[in-house]
Specification:
The chain is of the alpha/beta class and 272 residues long. The protein has two domains: 10-103 and 242-271, Rossmann fold (3-Layer(aba) Sandwich); 108-236, NAD(P)-binding Rossmann-like Domain (Rossmann fold, 3-Layer(aba) Sandwich). 39% of the residues lie in helices and 18% in strands. The chain has helices at 22-33, 48-58, 82-85, 105-116, 132-144, 156-166, 203-208, 223-230, 238-254, 260-271; strands at 10-15, 38-43, 62-65, 79-80, 92-96, 99-103, 125-128, 149-152, 169-171, 181-184, 211-214, 234-236. The protein has a six-stranded mixed beta sheet with strand order 2-1-3-5-6-4. The chain has a six-stranded parallel beta sheet with strand order 9-8-7-10-11-12, sandwiched between helices. Strand 1, helix 1 and strand 2 form a beta-alpha-beta unit. Helix 1 crosses helix 10 (260-271) and helix 5 packs parallel to helix 6. The longest helix has 17 residues, at 238-254.
């Protein structure tokens, strides 16, 4: 069935410095599959305050938020869910009669993935990166009870700040540290980037690990993930992260939770 837009159709959207098609395709596929009177559209803006005001004034139901707006939008919210408050970073806004509540479904997705992959909280880990997504991952690890970890970041100021926030240690390089869990939260391996063909960690570190987690979603089979699979390591991919965080956004917007099979098909359609 093809959905028809009406005056009652509810709009959901995204705000990003560099909009992608994944969210638009994922959400709209599920709206049609579930016969929901919603539509989703991606936007960018040079005026964040006006854009957030538009969400409030026009009754837009939900908004996904990507860089560079994740922290800048906080002061414009009416309420922060604990998922956003825990890391002071927003990736989802839900509007209810003009009341804007902020969430971070990246954080929620990481927590759920750690649980579903049964990663022990005693596991020693190295988290490479110090940006907004690294903060979501580090705080999800912290709040899940992980304590034995190290932030690897060349930017000393940001790396130390993230380590302090999550109760971890910091170093500029991995060096001789060989933890059981490696987590890449940098653009290394991302399609179209200058490091698209590179490994986020050296081969000896991958060989010494038990679990390899790469949050890069495009492609989900990064050089790091391919290397880890070749060495028969347990892997967690960025494709899992982006699908799960989008699912949690969908549920927040609509109140409907699709089946696992529907989510898998939506994610495959979105990534195609």
């Amino acid at each position: 069935m093809t959905l028809r837009l009406t005056k009652d159709t509810q709009l959901c959207m995204s705000l990003s410095g560099r909009p992608s098609n994944f969210g638009t395709r994922f959400h709209n596929w599920l709206y049609e599959e579930l016969a929901l009177d919603f539509v989703y559209k991606a936007f960018t803006t040079q005026d964040l305050k006006a854009a957030i005001g538009g969400i409030r004034a026009l009754g837009i139901r939900g908004c996904a938020v990507s860089m560079p707006f994740k922290e800048a939008c906080i002061e414009l919210m009416d309420e922060l869910d604990e998922s956003a408050d825990a890391i002071q970073s927003v990736n989802t806004i839900v509007s209810t009669r003009g009341h804007l509540k902020a969430y971070n479904t990246d954080y929620l997705a990481i927590r759920k993935l750690l649980e579903s992959h049964r990663v022990s909280t005693d596991t020693h880990f190295a988290l490479k990166g110090s940006g907004g997504m690294a903060k979501a991952v580090a705080c999800a690890l912290r709040d899940a009870g992980f304590k034995a970890g190290r932030v690897i970041a060349r930017n000393a100021l940001k790396g130390r700040a993230l380590a302090d926030t999550a109760g971890l240690t910091w170093s500029a390089e991995l060096g001789s540290y060989r933890p059981a869990l490696l987590i890449n939260v940098t653009p290394i391996g991302m399609s179209g980037g200058i490091e698209a063909t590179e490994l986020a960690f050296e081969r000896s570190a991958i060989a010494g690990a038990d679990i390899v987690f790469d949050v890069v979603a495009f492609p989900s089979e990064t050089p790091l993930i391919r290397e880890a699979r070749a060495l028969a390591k347990h892997v967690i991919t960025g494709g899992e992260v982006i699908a799960l965080q989008a699912l949690e956004q969908f549920v927040l917007y609509t109140g409907v939770r699709p089946t696992s099979e529907q989510v898998t098909r939506a994610a495959a359609f979105a990534a195609a």
